[in-house]
Design goal:
The protein is mainly α. It contains 6 helices and no strands. The protein has one domain (about 5-135): Four Helix Bundle (Hemerythrin (Met), subunit A), CATH 1.20.120.
Length: about 140
């Protein structure tokens, strides 16, 4: 029986749609702000689902699956790298740091900076999702 990565996939779809809507919105409009907020929230949710999906896979590798539940976010990604599930752990750490900052910083300048990083995140998260589905789904 394969693992279920549908929630991760749905988050990616929402992020993709939000990014497309943002691209079509005119800056300095309420619609742009709504779509920007949607992109940032979708980013946060997708990152969380990426971590949860990796935990599911790591339980398969672990002699003590319950111990995987106690891993910090960074440890999950470190272990994922050991098993060849992710390649650039530091980049995932930066995504997490940005996610933590988005929760606390609502400034417009910060939001615009994060949007650039979210494009890269979307590509990495899509590759991770495809790999997980192909190998374990």
């Amino acid at each position: 029986m394969g693992l279920n990565f549908e929630p991760f996939g749905r988050c990616l779809q929402t992020l993709e749609r939000s990014l497309r809507c943002l691209d079509s919105a005119q800056e300095d409009t309420v619609e742009y702000e709504v779509y920007r907020n949607s992109v940032i929230k979708s980013f946060e949710m997708t990152l969380e689902m990426a971590g949860k999906s990796l935990r599911r896979v790591l339980r398969e590798f672990s002699g003590n699956p319950k111990s995987v539940n106690e891993l910090t976010f960074k440890d999950v990604f470190r272990h994922a790298a050991k098993h060849g599930l992710v390649t650039d752990v530091e980049r995932w750490f930066r995504y997490r740091e940005s996610r933590n900052n988005t929760v606390h910083d609502y400034g417009e300048d910060f939001a615009e900076t994060v949007l650039v990083m979210i494009q890269e995140f979307y590509r990495d998260a899509s590759v991770l999702h495809q790999d997980l589905v192909r190998k374990y789904g």
